[in-house]
Design a protein that fits this description.
The protein is mainly β. Helices cover about 10% and strands about 35% of the residues. The protein contains two helices and 15 strands.
């Protein structure tokens, strides 16, 4: 088939497809010059939906955390009460089942024998007051407006990377970070990787390295099997907000 025949066949195929879609095809002449290239507009970055529920997580007892937020653009002071595993510690993922939400319209809740109250929700020093736990009442100050925690910047996820190991990945204004724990009992080991130290030392016994730690889409590269086996790559979550 000649080059001209191939060109004509391509044009006819395009015409059939466009007609099937209810669009009139306008076919250029074979000798017409190519149309100038139009640069596509840059796509507006989509907000990370996980960021809407991120914040400062504090353990309040009875296998629950309170995720504290204070962003005027997202409803003001909030405390999301979520269920977490028994071995939960600060820095672990906290996007478990939502048990209650406290805000200026709903300032009290009761969960698992604890009483929770959002204090001064419209004032300058909002806080969460928890009573009923061992050790007596406790008060947790909400993050100050304008701070990363207040806007829920740091998003945390976890991923099983093999050999009974879970990588806990976080990403926020300070960049990507990951630590490692036993998938069974939650014991942490081997240290942390971040922008300052993107790779674990050889003494860790396995490969763990952040690829492109200062880029827009960092990834965690791991290999739990030793030499001769392909490494796996896990993307970090996108931060909940931008600088």
């Amino acid at each position: 088939m000649s080059a001209f025949a191939r060109h004509r066949r391509a044009l006819l195929t395009a015409s059939v497809l466009l007609t099937a879609l209810g669009t009139t095809a306008v076919l250029p002449a074979a000798t017409a010059s190519a149309a100038p290239t139009v640069k596509a507009a840059k796509a507006t970055p989509k907000p990370n939906p996980a960021g809407r529920y991120a914040g400062k997580a504090v353990a309040v007892g009875k296998d629950m955390v309170a995720v504290l937020r204070n962003d005027p653009k997202a409803g003001g002071p909030e405390a999301w009460i979520r269920a977490v595993p028994k071995n939960w510690r600060s820095g672990d993922p906290y996007m478990g089942r939502t048990l209650a939400k406290l805000d200026h319209g709903h300032v009290t809740a009761a969960q698992r024998g604890l009483s929770l109250r959002l204090v001064d929700p419209k004032g300058s020093k909002p806080a969460l007051r928890v009573t009923g736990a061992k050790g007596g009442p406790r008060t947790y100050a909400l993050p100050k407006v304008g701070t990363p925690d207040a806007r829920g910047c740091t998003v945390i996820t976890e991923s099983f990377i093999g050999a009974g190991t879970v990588a806990v990945l976080s990403n926020g204004l300070s960049g990507p970070s990951a630590f490692f724990k036993d998938a069974g009992d939650g014991t942490r080991f081997a240290g942390v990787v971040n922008r300052a130290h993107p790779s674990l030392p050889k003494s860790a016994g396995f490969l763990a390295q952040i690829v492109d730690p200062k880029g827009a889409a960092p990834k965690l590269r791991t290999n739990m099997e030793g030499g001769g086996h392909p490494a796996s790559t896990t993307p970090f979550p996108a931060p909940g907000c931008v600088k």
